[in-house]
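Predict the 3D structure for this chain.
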Amino acid sequence: MRDLTLACGPDYTAASAELRAGRSGPLSALRGGPAIGHAYLQIDCLGNDVWYARSMPHPQHPMPAALTLDLEFLISATGHIARAGKQSLLDEGRRRQQQIQAQPPSKWLANLPNGAVVEFVGLCWNPSGGKPWWGPDGSPLGFVPYVNYERYAREQEDRTVYEILSRVHLQQHTSSSIRSAMEGVVGSYRGEIRDRYGNRIYTELASAGHAFKKSMQETTLTVGARVNEGEFAWVTFKNISLVPGKDQGFEIVQGQGGPESRELR
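Done. Predicted structure below.
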């Protein structure tokens, strides 16, 4: 083992690790010379102080190293793992990691005429860790896009802070610009978002904290995208429910014009 670094996930039920292992010494020349192997590990707690680790492509730089290590193993914080239960633990670890990777695409999206795709993913109260997410129509989201335990603002009796998540997909090899506006906000906040393994999320996901008066039950988000030197194309997600389980008349409207004009057709 040459090097090992470990990062805990936001809720401490998962982690990630990067390791380098190498061979050296008199026999290394007979085996093709010195070599360094690399691995990125995703680690999940299976309960009872047993953890499952498996090597995966690194989410931030997925190009493999010259020599990658294919690893899968169990870790016990308390001692020996009985042979009879190892296979079922391995199966459970594989199931959990496959489930995390298979997040469904958003049901609420707009294909803009310039090729951009805008998705509304979901929203949750801040901090979102351990709380349920819901869609813009109030329906349960069914999965957790990320885990956050950071409180964006001090609690105030007259306002509530939500984490609102959207995504803009743009064509590759294009220059682009994105604008957005949210109705009724009395404060906005930014923070890092991380996946369950502690990696910062750098994808097209756009998450922000937005504070609203407690009396508000819906809001509207307008998003515009420009590709290359073209005009902005706009979409409005109207009547986003700030109350889980209640549809406030949500609808998606596409058209021309920016958030200032509100003349979306």
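Residues 27 and 33 are 8 Å apart (CA to CA).
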